[in-house]
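Workshop exercise sheet. Pairs work together: one partner reads the sequence aloud, the other fills in the structure field after running the prediction. Swap roles for the next sheet.
Pair: D.N. / O.F.
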Amino acid sequence: MSAAVRIRPATIDDLDAIMAIERASFPTDAWSEAMMAEELRSPHGAYVVVEQAGRIIGYAGLRALAGARDGDIQTIALSADARGRGQGRALLRHLIDEAARRRVRELFLEVRADNPMARRLYASEGFHEIGVRPRYYQPDDVDAVIMRLDVRAWDAARDARPAEAGACT
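Structure field:
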């Protein structure tokens, strides 16, 4: 990627671009526009977009209520042409940083059992598989793998990680 990439807070004005990526990424179980709009407006969430050359190429969301010990990665999605270039890792790290700022101790997510790339990404950042929700993703009958991250341990280990891994460049 040659043009500068940046992550910024998502706004309701980004809804059309987010929904285009949502529908392309999750063709059988995409969130509705109303659900996504509610997430973008929620005071409990932190949604961000990643832009390149002024075009939204991905988005991600965290839900963590004020004062809660735990939070959830709600979603991470990238346009097809932006995948495999470190943007997913950059978005994930941004959400984990936000969870740490909110004093979240444990961060959870669900990932499709048939998405090995996402599972490897989450595991490489310290998430551990803790359970399975059978047939969670409908209408595909795909299991959801539940993963958990100790945010404080991740935060403490941040200096040990290479700075260039997943950088937005």
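Discussion prompt: Residues 87-101 form the longest helix (15 residues). What would you look at next?
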